[in-house]
Every structure is written in C-alpha cells, then in structure tokens.
Specification:
Layout (H helix, E strand, L loop, with lengths): L1 H9 L6 H8 L2 E6 L4 E3 L7 E7 L2 E6 L5 E7 L4 E2 L2 H6 L6 E4 L3 E7 H10 L1 H27 L2 H11 L1 H6 L2 H8 L3 H7 L2
Antiparallel strand pairs: 1-8, 2-7, 3-6, 3-8, 4-5, 4-7
C-alpha cells in the first residue's frame, strides 16, 4: 500500500526515503466494504481519500430523491467533497464504496501541515487540484455540448476499466441518461 502512494506522488515529485516517511506519517489507512458510506450528505467531511484499491462514487441526491453520480474514483485517484473538505462545512453529497476499497485518508489539518512544512507536497497538491479542476470543466462542457452517444463514447475511450466495473444503472446516472438509453448506447 505504501509503495502505491509513493509511486503516485513520485510521478510528480521525487522523494527520499525520509521525505516519504514524513509524508506517510500524515495519512491513515482505511478499509471499506462494498456499499459502505465513507461520509453521508449533511456530515462534516474530515478527509480526502487516495484510493489504493477498489472503487468509490460521489453522489448527490436531489430533492426528489433521484441520485446523481458526480464522479467515480478508481485506484490511483483522489476523492472527497472538496468544497466541504476545504471549507469545513457539511457536505451536500455522499461518498460510498462500490467495491471493497482501501484508501489513505488525509485530514485537512494534515493537508495544511504537509503543505506548510514540505513545499514539495504543496506543489503536488496544486498539480492534483488543477488536474481535477480541468477534468470537472471537461465533464461540464461534455454535458453542455455533447449528446448521450458522444458522452458514452468519450467515457469508454477515456476510462475503459471504469465502464467494465461500474453497474449500468450507475453509469446511466453518471452520463445523465436512463438505464434503457444506456442499454441502447452500449449495443
């Protein structure tokens, strides 16, 4: 597990063994069974999560009880309700495991401590934040400019493993289509 986190960080910044030990000391390993909630709508979001193994979904439930998949997170990805995490507010979303999952969690306090005491990690976090922001903008633009077929084709091209691992009902919610429409698109 430690090796996975180190390799992930070292894609962007080199670390000595001592530096990695210092970084690792700020994280906590956590395990979740399939369907466990990591946090639920209305709760404080205390951590962001780096996924070692498994699959998570970030979900927004609207006032009519309809579930909207905001994002999925596979191995080597980060996930949280970052708005609630950084503002120390209650979340408007829920984070749930789709598969048995192992994560490294990072509290906001430890995020700030790492950023202040180890500038390399501040650069790492900035890069991850920028990458996530860009991905979110691409997803928004996809909804504004692409039809269901184009969104489905983009998803398959960009994340082929995700499509194989996520139940069709959840994929349909992520794409903003009905389960029936997704069935037509996938044939």
């Amino acid at each position: 597990m430690k090796k996975i986190l180190r390799e992930h960080i070292e894609k962007l910044i080199p670390l000595t063994d001592d530096e990695f030990s210092f970084v690792l000391s700020h994280f906590s390993a956590e395990q979740y069974d399939k369907n466990d909630f990591i946090f639920r709508k209305g709760e404080k979001v205390k951590n962001c999560y780096f996924i070692i193994s498994g699959l998570l979904k970030l979900v927004y439930d609207d006032k009519d009880g309809k579930q909207h998949i905001v994002s999925f997170a596979l191995e080597d990805w980060w996930e949280s309700d970052f708005s609630a995490y950084f503002s120390e507010a209650n979340t408007k979303m829920s984070l749930q495991s789709i598969e048995d999952s192992i994560t490294f969690s990072l509290s906001l306090k430890n995020y700030h401590k790492l950023s202040a005491e180890f500038p390399k990690m501040q650069r790492f976090f900035l890069n991850k934040s920028n990458t996530g922001h860009i991905a979110s903008q691409h997803r928004i633009l996809s909804f504004l400019t692409s039809n269901a077929r184009e969104r489905y084709d983009q998803l398959i091209k960009q994340y082929p493993l995700l499509v194989q691992r996520v139940p069709k009902t959840l994929l349909a919610s992520y794409l903003g289509v009905s389960r029936e429409t997704l069935s037509r698109l996938s044939h």
